[in-house]
Design goal:
about 45% helix
């Protein structure tokens, strides 16, 4: 399975996040999975790549050309395949197209945007891929609480609320992804508040 990991690029985050994502990547690679990611060498992007590499997994990095040209971010240079794009939107599209599942690691506004895009696309029936939120150190507790409020106030229906899952352990994530069965709910039902 090709797994897209979205997560922080920051090199200044607590080591507990880095360690947990490296461990997740290594375990997933050892279980035969490969990585699709944003090709950054720092933060949780770099941690995912190092973990997959340590586990012997295949790594596909996707990054805009201007990151390299303008030194926006340190690029992880040990990818098995590197794809350069013109824009951030093209980068994200290629990541989405090239994977079978998504893991949302802790991150900032870029990660939030990526999560909500793949969630919206799933709601609109553009894909049926698993979406997992890795809630390391309760990082996403407030997001989960907010999404409950969104459901309770009828801005989304319950089927939409069920389109992704929260986990706080790497083993649970791997087991979930490997046993995931896409819902047969027509996308139109995800847009109707019953």
């Amino acid at each position: 399975m090709k797994i897209c990991v979205f997560g922080a690029a920051s090199a200044h985050i607590d080591d507990i996040y880095v360690k947990k994502i490296e461990e997740l990547g290594e375990m997933l690679a050892k279980r035969g999975h490969s990585l699709v990611f944003g090709a950054g060498a720092t933060g949780l992007m770099g941690a995912a790549a190092r973990g997959f590499k340590r586990g012997g997994g295949y790594i596909h990095g996707i990054i805009p050309e201007f990151f390299r040209e303008e030194g926006v971010e340190i690029i992880y240079d040990d990818c098995d395949k590197m794809t350069y794009t013109k824009t951030m939107s093209e980068r994200k599209q290629k990541m989405e197209d090239d994977c079978d599942a998504f893991i949302i690691a802790p991150g900032g506004i870029g990660t939030f945007e990526e999560f909500f895009e793949v969630l919206t696309l799933k709601q609109l029936g553009r894909h049926k891929k698993a979406i997992v939120v890795y809630n390391i150190g309760n990082y996403y507790d407030e997001l989960e609480n907010f999404m409950k409020v969104v459901y309770e106030r009828k801005f989304i229906n319950f089927k939409c609320y069920e389109m992704y899952s929260y986990f706080d352990s790497a083993e649970e994530i791997a087991d979930y992804l490997e046993s995931y069965e896409p819902s047969d709910t027509p996308w139109q039902k995800l847009k109707i508040n019953d």
